[in-house]
Every structure is written in structure tokens, then in C-alpha cells.
Write a structure and sequence with these properties.
By secondary structure, the protein is mainly α. It is built from 3 helices and 2 strands.
Length: 85
């Protein structure tokens, strides 16, 4: 069974946001660890070239075998305040 990772989008252009190299590989390593998939930082850095963006992170996750998809999430219409009891 393939694991699926979802990336929600709030505004336009969110899929092409720049990501630092450290954050890119940290996120990739975290998803691999969460799903108990082998990960080598040195190997990933050799195989995945800059520029690092949210779109290239999605592509990298797909290359690692995850069924990663981009989804849009509607903005909430309003927040209602309810008292805690």
C-alpha cells in the first residue's frame, strides 16, 4: 500500500515557494521516518538538485514512493467562538 501525503494550499503560488536546502531534506527525512522508509541524507543530496521548492519536495516524495498529491483547501468562512465549559 502506498502512503499518501497531502499538501494543502491557502494562496495562489504556494506550490512554488522556495525552501532552504536544510528544510527540504529535513521534511523529506521526516516523512520517510514517519512511514519507516529508509533514508540517507548523503544519497538524497546527491540525487536531488536545487532549486528547492515546495513543488520539488512533492516530486521528491513521489520519487521516494509516496503517493504525494497537491490539494487545495478552502478557506474557512468564519470562526465561531464557543465558550469552554
Amino acid at each position: 500500500m502506498r502512503k499518501q501525503a497531502h499538501f494543502g494550499r491557502i494562496g495562489s503560488g504556494m506550490m512554488d515557494q522556495k525552501v532552504s536546502g536544510d528544510a527540504f531534506f529535513w521534511a523529506l527525512q521526516g516523512v520517510c521516518a514517519l512511514h519507516r522508509k529508509p533514508y540517507s541524507d548523503a544519497l538524497a543530496r546527491q540525487q536531488l538538485a536545487a532549486p528547492y521548492t515546495t513543488r520539488s519536495l512533492l516530486d521528491a516524495m513521489q520519487a521516494y514512493g509516496f503517493d504525494a498529491v497537491h490539494t487545495t483547501r478552502p478557506k474557512p468562512k468564519s470562526f465561531t467562538r464557543k465558550p469552554f465549559r
